Amino acid sequence: MSRYNRRQFLKKGAVTIVVTSTCLCGLNGCATITKIGNTPAINPDSYALTNNILTIDLSKEVNLSQVGEAVKIKHSDIPNGLIIAHVEENRFEVASLLCTHRGVEVEYDHEQTNFSCASLGGSTYEINGKNISGPATKPLKDSEAALKDGILTIKI
Ligand code: FES
């Protein structure tokens, strides 16, 4: 049986602390550090925002054309941004973009039909923004979306 002397013990402890305090998900593009998820940004030519009404011309937004896709909007007049998910044919769901735990972007998970935080904390939210799991305790803000003649209208 091997025994550590004090110096060996302290050296091994220091290595352990360095390893465990390093982000293990990879430094390049780690959402826990960058706070940015993988959802593509909306085409700036596809939308207009007037008096808290957002209109999106879906013919100009290729990243929402298929069921299962999603885009995000970051805009100075939308404090927590938005994530817009194409949930079913002719059905879109909209929620605030930033996880209520520490503000990392959420992403749309089409298999689970929910939103999940891109960070290691991984809070998940129902499609209407209610909390399912993880450290976040407050819901995402849910916004109403209506589709007519290829134009998606969202009340912010
Ligand atoms: S920031 Fe989303 S779980 Fe921590």
Give the SSE layout.
Layout: H1 6-21, H2 31-34, E1 47-50, E2 53-57, E3 70-75, E4 78-88, E5 91-96, E6 106-109, E7 114-117, E8 124-126, E9 131-133, E10 142-143, E11 145-148, E12 151-155
Antiparallel strand pairs: 1-2, 2-12, 3-4, 4-5, 5-10, 6-7, 7-8, 8-9, 11-12
The protein binds FE2/S2 (inorganic) cluster.
Textual characterization of the structure:
This protein is mostly beta strands and 156 residues long. It contains two helices and twelve strands, in the order ααββββββββββββ. It has one domain (29-155): 3-layer Sandwich (Rieske Iron-sulfur Protein). The chain has helices at 6-21, 31-34; strands at 47-50, 53-57, 70-75, 78-88, 91-96, 106-109, 114-117, 124-126, 131-133, 142-143, 145-148, 151-155. The strands form three sheets. A four-stranded antiparallel β-sheet has the order 1-2-12-11, with no helix packed on it. A four-stranded antiparallel β-sheet has the order 3-4-5-10, with no helix packed on it. The structure holds FE2/S2 (inorganic) cluster. FE2/S2 (inorganic) cluster binds at residues 99, 101-102, 104, 117, 119, 121-123, 134-136.
Count of helix runs: 2
Distance between the termini: 66 Å
CATH architecture: 3-layer Sandwich
Named once each, the bound ligands are: FE2/S2 (inorganic) cluster
Number of domains: 1
Question: Element order, helices and strands?
Answer: HHEEEEEEEEEEEE
Cross-sheet strand order for the largest sheet: 1-2-12-11
Give the beta-strand count.
Answer: 12
The CATH superfamily turns out to be: Rieske [2Fe-2S] iron-sulphur domain
Shape: elongated
CATH class: Mainly Beta
Strand content: 35-45%
Flag low-confidence runs. 14-26
**What does the radius of gyration come to?**
20 Å
Largest sheet: 4 strands, antiparallel
CATH topology: Rieske Iron-sulfur Protein
SSE class = mainly beta
Helix content: 10-25%
Mean pLDDT, as a whole number? 88
**Assembly annotation:** single chain
